[in-house]
Specification:
Layout: H1 6-15, H2 20-34, H3 38-60, H4 125-152, E1 153-155, E2 161-163, H5 171-179, E3 204-208, H6 213-228, E4 232-238, H7 242-246, E5 251-255, H8 259-269, H9 280-299, E6 313-316, H10 323-330, E7 334-338, E8 353-354, H11 361-388, H12 398-401, E9 408-410, E10 427-429, E11 432-433, H13 445-452, E12 458-461, H14 470-484, E13 488-491, E14 507-510, H15 515-518, E15 524-527, H16 531-539, E16 544-546, H17 552-562, H18 577-587, H19 590-602, E17 605-607
Parallel strand pairs: 2-8, 3-4, 3-6, 4-5, 6-7, 7-9, 9-10, 11-17, 12-13, 12-15, 13-14, 15-16
Antiparallel strand pairs: 1-2
Helix pairs in contact: 1-11, 2-4, 4-5, 9-11, 14-18
Length: 608
């Protein structure tokens, strides 16, 4: 199985049979990282053949008088320590022991066999044989697990992973066994986290963030708060966000990858799994660039000032693949924060998976972890060996492919998604991290006057999401606003919305306006469902319609609908005048606006 792209794992998983060729494929791929000595397998095979042939030969010689010419020597001394167990046996011989003839003068327990004259005096032989037996067991287990995953998943044309778990399937217990290698359990004293009198040293902290501006913004809020406590904080993210970070007076370091390319890839594939051959090279180039930039982000001097920097602690989001390996190489602590669930739970599925049965929710996280790990394993192991000087990692190592063994904080409100009961003490829901950009925002006078001269408008925008047909999407929005008699604010975003054929008084086009200032001016909001945008809309007490493009946006759309804060999500591919009009009508119902108002009273955050 290939290791340089997720597409390889999918192709191999679908094409490999349950034959011996599959076992050989797993062994071969495992040897790339485990450094298993393939000669051990050949050595065993050669020995078995030699043993079999020599044994058969001697059986034919039992009635012959030429047995005295045997190379086997018999000693009657008790000084030789020979076991009476079968292990004392017949390795590397060319004739059977004389004891086979029933010689009454010799006690079987006292037989000592000499080595063949042609045998290498390798005292480690028996140990190799013993280890080989264990290796065969491992290979058998890996093959079995791989077969289970082949039968468990189906990768859709849009790149999402469908996890189908039939009733009474044994796959759950099998994958539970696989996940058990993720590391030891932790017995933590929660009171340690609330000691405010303990002195905390000032640290150099590297924050590694991969994603769009919506992904970066909560970490920028976190960086500002850490800086207020005296830490030196470096926020490493894509070069596109350099000015955004620098304006917040936070040190910046560029990571590889282009968020526009990443967003386009995610939108086309609905996740991290390539949906076609044309997407493979894009994925590979972006992942390689990101991974290779992580170590310099934690160790290189400031690009502008030249001030030395070496991280003493690392904070990262999961898509910054390689974070745990850099932390391992530097010997520093690592803390994961994210705005979407990435820790296995039985309460809801992985946002990148489709799971029709609740019994498969927990397993969906293991499957997605493995698929991602198989896709990046080649890059990670190359990175570990060449850059970090660390040993490579095994093929089926979920411990290094997941974050389940790492302290993790999820940045959303526990009133919207409470902490699952099966998340242990290493995981917590910590609240939203708001940057509070609106306090310094100065809107154009023309915009303020437009807002004030009529009813509260509806906000419609899709942030950093790319659009296949900008004009068609704009026309749908304009017609839906017209049908419902509502005024609207259209946010151009990266999709370049707002290509009007004619101007209208009921619509205002904006660019780069802070949501924490804008949303309180609106009666409802329609957006892509990014975690930060969703949080800001609910904090403002706005009923919400989510038009998801990929990933966790579907997850947040479902959560908003379940809480009665808006209609069911409308995937961007299904957006129509009728559906958007119905969604606007739904949001403006008094009972929905009341629920949103109650949600406003519960809003809270970790960072302000």
């Amino acid at each position: 199985m290939g290791s340089n792209g997720i597409e390889c794992s999918r192709k191999d998983l679908q094409e490999e049979s349950v034959s011996n060729n599959r076992s050989k494929g797993v062994l071969k791929d495992s040897e790339q990282t485990d450094e298993v000595d393939e000669s051990a397998m050949e050595y065993r095979s050669s020995d078995d053949q030699s043993f079999s042939s020599c044994y058969e030969k001697e059986e034919n010689q039992k009635s012959s008088s030429e047995q005295k010419s045997s190379v086997i020597e018999v000693s009657e001394t008790k000084q030789s320590s020979v076991s009476s167990t079968p292990k004392r046996g017949l390795d590397h011989c060319t004739s059977a022991p004389l004891a086979a003839q029933g010689n009454q003068l010799i006690d079987d327990n006292e037989i000592a066999f000499s080595r063949s004259m042609t045998e290498k005096k390798n005292s480690r032989h028996d140990l190799k044989i013993d280890r080989l037996s264990e290796r065969e067991k491992v290979i058998e287990r890996l093959t079995r697990w791989k077969n289970l995953i082949v039968n468990l998943i189906k990768i859709q044309n849009d790149g999402t992973v469908e996890v189908d778990l039939p009733k009474n399937s044994p796959v759950a217990s099998e994958l539970l066994e696989l996940s058990s290698i993720e590391g030891p359990s932790f017995d933590l004293d929660d009171t340690l986290f609330y000691e405010t009198t303990k002195s905390i040293p000032r640290l150099n902290i590297a924050i590694l963030v991969v994603g769009t501006r919506g992904d970066v913004q909560p970490f920028l809020a976190m960086a500002k708060r850490l800086q207020e406590f005296g830490h030196r904080v470096r926020l490493a993210t894509h070069a596109n966000f350099r000015n955004f970070v620098k304006l917040a007076d936070i040190d910046f370091y560029p990571l590889g990858g282009d968020p526009r390319v990443l967003a386009g890839y995610m939108a086309r594939n609905k996740g991290l799994i390539p949906s076609g051959p044309g997407e493979i090279s894009i994925q590979r180039k972006q992942l390689k660039s990101i991974i290779e930039s992580l170590l310099p982000a934690c160790t290189e001097p400031d690009i502008e000032t030249g001030m030395p920097f070496r991280a003493q602690a690392i904070i990262a989001n999961p898509p910054a693949y390689g974070h745990s390996h850099v932390a391992e190489a530097l010997g520093v602590p690592l803390h994961i924060f994210f705005t979407m669930p990435w820790t296995p739970t039985s309460e809801f599925p992985h946002p990148l998976a489709r799971v029709p049965q609740s019994a498969g929710y927990w397993l969906s996280y293991i499957v997605v972890d493995l698929l991602i790990w198989w896709g990046i394993r080649g890059y990670i192991n190359d990175f570990r060996k060449k850059k970090l000087k660390l040993a490579p990692i095994a093929y089926f190592s979920t411990y290094n492919g997941s974050i389940s063994h790492l302290p993790t904080g999820y940045m959303w409100s526990s009133h919207l998604v409470p902490k699952p009961k099966d998340w242990g003490p290493l995981v917590d829901v910590v609240g939203y991290c708001f940057l509070n950009l609106g306090s310094k925002y100065r809107p154009r006078e023309e915009f303020v006057q437009w807002i004030q001269k009529g009813p509260q408008p509806i906000y419609i925008g899709f942030g950093s999401m790319p659009l296949d047909d900008t004009k068609k999407t704009t026309d749908v929005i304009l017609e839906a606003l017209k049908d419902t008699g509502q005024r609207g604010i259209i946010d151009r975003g990266w999709g370049d919305l707002g290509q009007f054929t004619e101007a209208t008084e009921n619509v205002f086009l904006i660019e780069d306006c802070p949501h924490d200032w804008l949303f309180p001016q609106c009666s409802a909001v329609v957006h892509h469902g990014g975690a930060g945008t969703t949080a800001t809309g609910l904090k403002a007490g706005c009923p919400t319609t989510i038009v998801p493009f990929f990933g966790d946006q579907f997850f947040w759309g479902d959560r908003v609908h379940q809480r009665g804060l808006g209609p069911a999500p409308i995937p961007i591919s299904e957006l129509s005048i009728e559906k958007l009009s119905n969604a606007i009508t739904f949001m403006l119902q008094p009972e929905v606006t009341q629920v949103a108002f109650v949600c406003l009273s519960y809003s809270h955050s970790l960072c302000y």
